Amino acid sequence: LFFAEALDDEDTFKILIATDVHLGYLEKDAIRCNDSYNTLNEILKCAKTNQVDFILLGGDLFHENKPSRRCLHSCITMLRQYCMGDSPIRFNILSDQTVNFNTTQFPWVNYQDENLNISIPVFSIHGNHDDPTGAEGLCALDLLSASGLVNHFGHSHSVERIEISPILLQKGSTKLALYGLGSIPDERLYRMFVNNQVTMLRPKEDQDKWFNLFTIHQNRSKHGPTNYIPEQFLDDFLDLVVWGHEHECLIAPTRNEQQLFYVTQPGSSVATSLSPGEATKKHIGLLRVKGRKMNLHKIPLKTVRQFFIQDVVLGDYQDLFTPDTPHATKKVEEFCYAKVTEMLEEAERERLGCPLTPEKPLIRLRVDYSGGFETFNTSRFSQRFVDRVANPKDIIHFLRRREQKEDIKDEVNVDYGKLIKTAAVEGLRVEDLVKQYFEAAEQKVQLSLLTEQGMGKAIQEFVDKDEKDAIEELITYQLEKTQRHLQARGVTTEQDIDAEVLFRDSKKNTTEEENEIREAMNRARAHRLERGDNALDADILDELAEPMDSDEGSVPFPAPTRGRGRGSRGRGGRGRGRGEDCKLMFSKFIEECRCDTRQ
Amino acid sequence: LFFAEALDDEDTFKILIATDVHLGYLEKDAIRCNDSYNTLNEILKCAKTNQVDFILLGGDLFHENKPSRRCLHSCITMLRQYCMGDSPIRFNILSDQTVNFNTTQFPWVNYQDENLNISIPVFSIHGNHDDPTGAEGLCALDLLSASGLVNHFGHSHSVERIEISPILLQKGSTKLALYGLGSIPDERLYRMFVNNQVTMLRPKEDQDKWFNLFTIHQNRSKHGPTNYIPEQFLDDFLDLVVWGHEHECLIAPTRNEQQLFYVTQPGSSVATSLSPGEATKKHIGLLRVKGRKMNLHKIPLKTVRQFFIQDVVLGDYQDLFTPDTPHATKKVEEFCYAKVTEMLEEAERERLGCPLTPEKPLIRLRVDYSGGFETFNTSRFSQRFVDRVANPKDIIHFLRRREQKEDIKDEVNVDYGKLIKTAAVEGLRVEDLVKQYFEAAEQKVQLSLLTEQGMGKAIQEFVDKDEKDAIEELITYQLEKTQRHLQARGVTTEQDIDAEVLFRDSKKNTTEEENEIREAMNRARAHRLERGDNALDADILDELAEPMDSDEGSVPFPAPTRGRGRGSRGRGGRGRGRGEDCKLMFSKFIEECRCDTRQ
Q1: From the list A105, A117, A135, which residue is nearest B115 (CB)?
Q2: CB-neighbour burial class of residue B220 (10 A; exposed 0-12, middle 13-18, buried 19+)
Q3: What is the percentage of chain A residues whose pLDDT exceeds 90?
Q4: What is the value of ipTM here, to two decimals?
Q5: Where would you tag: which of B19, B148, B222, B405 has the fewest CB atoms within 10 A of its CB?
Q6: pLDDT over 70 for what percent of chain B?
Q7: Which domains does chain B have, with CATH numbers?
Q8: Does the beta-carbon distance from B80 to A148 stay under 8 Å?
Q9: Do residue A73 and residue B142 have CB atoms under 8 angstroms apart?
Q10: pLDDT reported for residue A586
């Protein structure tokens, strides 16, 4: 699917991909007020410099649903500056534009409007931050759309069913089908997928000649049983999915081995929370598509404020201090001071020769003070960094693992003993846990829980294709991948594996919605059984491969980040949404083991 | 100055003038929600049909400072629909556009932007409803401006001094200097005028060849001592002033005999209060300028909802009922029912053959129930008109003249006896009152009060021109005009003349601002005395000619209407602003006389 040489010829689409610009984020902050603006400017400039054919945005161009006047004004101004001009557009649109661009009274692509001279068309879906509201179902993007500065697409007006009709683009011999779906509440979209209410239309002729690109703005990481969109739900005829909403930059395309498409997650261009995912270096992508091959070149963003995050467990430094050391708190504070200073020095080194990067970095030090330590006065601490750090007030984040576990315990009331019979869990490998689960599950009613998770449309189609054998392979693959994945992150059974991701008990919280889904699942299972297909769902296994949610819940909406930090993990109290009802089984078990080992 | 034949030739500017569109007014009302939108559509369509050279808007295009998404979206859509296209623009701009259009990063007229195909340029100042706010000093208009849909001009960024630099337009041999000044709080602008801080720049060459057009958005009628802009403040080289903000349509140009310019007050295109001024039929203007001659053709707006207002004084119908009549209240209600029905019938007759006019009119019946009558239940009354009237809930407005007077009395604590020595005021003519005032004033310190009102820059220039003789003529003229004016409106001394307009005592409320003004006035007077010019100020006399404020105070901002209703007048409790401190002298006196006569 990939091609190495990045040739810009008459058959190659050159597309700038970016998402989650969050224009206007912290625009009233004394230090960070211009960050999101500077970065949009950089992105548009980059598009112009690279003479791209078009810009593709994955939603949340605006941070606020009702952007401020400054925000709209700046956005309009920048788009007019960079995206209007004389450069000719070298591709055509073959699809019915009145279907593609259905949010304005000008249902055609802006560059074909005879009154506008567009040099770089922008195609954008809306995100959850700038989603349509009100009786008119208009979003902030529609103001740009009405002005002719942006082509808003992927807005489904029906709540009954979604039919995604692609924009069919042709440049030379390359045919690009651009699908988009603006943000929809995850649970609702999940249900619609499960109920076969989501359809992606395909051109009738030359189906295999089209490069199929899909832009979506949903949770990719799991925030609850149905509070995300499993990649498996997406049609497998797709070639590339540009996944918006998730803020961590994972822009290098990863292959979904079940669906056989690639997913690129550009990530936000501004950090809207101080979680590990946001600390990953921010990029945008220069995507080239020629025929059915693609090449994604990632471009680091220079105007993005640096963000360093580090975790320290005070208990790990017994040579320096214990809770009983005289002036322990003072010593801890100085220790943290040194850590922050270190990060600042690293930031300064990295910033050398980057005049566009703002001077003051974002710094977060997460301090696990469990084991009897006391917290120190953070406001005094902040004062010492007020001239060097962009977020002096919230550098330090105190947390106690112990307490967190206790919080989790309160939520756990399932009899996990039935499942895990052996008490000697230490040393148990992940695959053993998984295997054990399946063994247990097959004997019990909990099989239904399994199928609930996995029986999406895509899976069903997968089965329908008589590729049943593939499922077994898939399970094996997933197990291996999961193990590699966890190992790569240093996760062993000694660590508190977030079992929310592994298993859950959905007997509680049987809301109407979930019942609906369960029924659909049962129907699907019946269908499979009828076909004599007893293979287990692969989806549950795939979930093991999902990075765990380490969002700190510092954003107002369902946590958009997908944190994989710098070797550290935290659990947010918020950001779990409906997942709060999930019952954690293994995690508690393992945590208790670890506690035993440690203390 | 006028020319009769309306020729559209290559030397004739054709300008559509409109103001106070108040887009978005009552957009959530079930009945009136589309009114402002339909009328903007009509205005733009009219501009297109008439193939005007440009549209000139006098402010308050938007009703809300932060218009709703629907509002912005509709406005953008309509402007794009009507003002973009292939019709060529047949005039040039000779002035420095970076000075004229200073609110965006595109400081040039939109039709000269090579990326936009503009068929009808819109030039607009901002009003008080859509005025600039925030650190950036941006207003809603600037969003349109940044999008290239409107040319926002007349925005002064300094609070120290205002320099109005005209847009110099040329079409064929006609030279048009377009001046504009966006809304500024009246008191501040008043003070700036008085302090010579307002300058209008003029082209150095061929000064007498330019037609000078000025657009302003301020109180024209007096809402307080300095809470309006006297026409005399405006430079006399002007030919025509397009006065925004005032909602009453007085579009036929009226000559200011002192300044020798004409004023056209197009009025709002939607009624935003149920005051008499809003009941005047709404129009926009088609202004033609050729050389230094003009022709203003008024065009009635068809989409405007009809508004009928009527006053009844229950005490005037003693043949029908008195407070002692059995079932008097019931009879009064039926009487009012008949009156409203009458108005509805009139509305229906008028609406015949006007398919664009909304079906349900606005109806207001002001019922003076003084003299012992009781009010009836208006909600029950409203119920009877719910299907026929657009504002069923507030058709009836009960008021008592007596009570109003008492309200006024509370505000009056000046010893007016000193001024008016004769008790037999009845039959006193207006000019006698004025004469008497001047006689008294000259003997007293109150002379300073007089000069405070009048010593604007324009007057000073007038004097500087050694046209002193003209002042006496002017006084005579104004006296006669005032008398005609009052007589035309049926005002005699028996009626409660609003003496706020006549005189006031400024000894109280000597805020810093007013002191400043007084000092400037004193300087100016000293200057005049130095020149040996003892003529009285003409301005105070001119004020007699000002129509009285009959705004009901039902608008959130300083009352924008300039009510001259259908033969009736009310006094709002609000809308007087700083004028509340003014002391009413004659009015109280005269009212008391009337009371004596009546009872």
Answers
A1: A117
A2: buried
A3: 63
A4: 0.72
A5: B405
A6: 66
A7: 12-300 (3.60.21.10), 308-389 (3.30.110.110), 417-598 (no CATH)
A8: yes
A9: yes
A10: 29
